[in-house]
Amino acid sequence: MSIPGQLLSFIRQYRIYLDKICRLEGITPQQAFIILAIPFDGIRIHSLALNMGLHISTMTRNIKKMEKLKLLNRTLDLLDKRSSIISLSKYGRSIKISIETNHEKNINKIIGLCDIKNQLEFLNSIESLSWEMKKNNMINE
To answer: What is the SS3 assignment for 42?
Structure first.
């Protein structure tokens, strides 16, 4: 199989894995990605939408749903009254920590099982792919 084919296969398997982790937490993968993208000190909705590559209206709909689930808090931005700051609620922070812990444990387990002779080389390759995607405007960051 070609490199693009292998990468697509990996992405499919990884999405199934993420979906499983999200179901354990009672959230959708989209909600998990939003939770993981919010710094502990909060972020403006517009910045979050840009970081996630989502239209602001899509992000706003997601934020409203997540507020109803008590995952997020929204406060008025004191510097720009037209904007809101999104931060994780106590419940949202606990889910973020759980997802990150579960993810790190499982990925390290998988990498440990693979025949990867040089894990630093693997890490550098993933980082290079990410930077090339950004540099070539393949993603919106």
So the answer is: coil
Q: Tell me how far apart the alpha carbons of residues 101 and 129 are, in angstroms, rounded to a whole number.
A: 24
Say which DSSP state 138 is in: S
**pLDDT tens digits, residue range 97-120?**
999 998 888 888 877 776 666 677
- Tokens found for residue 53: 């590559």
Residue 54 CA to residue 67 CA, distance in Å, equals: 18
Residues 6+ apart with CB under 8 A from 1: 9
Spatial distance between the Cα atoms of 32 and 92, rounded to a whole number of angstroms: 10
Q: How many CB atoms lie within 10 A of CB 63?
A: 20
Query: At residue 68, does pLDDT exceed 90?
Result: yes
* pLDDT of 141: 43
What is the spatial distance between Cα 120 and Cα 126, in angstroms, rounded to a whole number? 10
- Cross-strand bridge partners of residue 75: 85
Mean pLDDT for the stretch of residues 52-63: 93
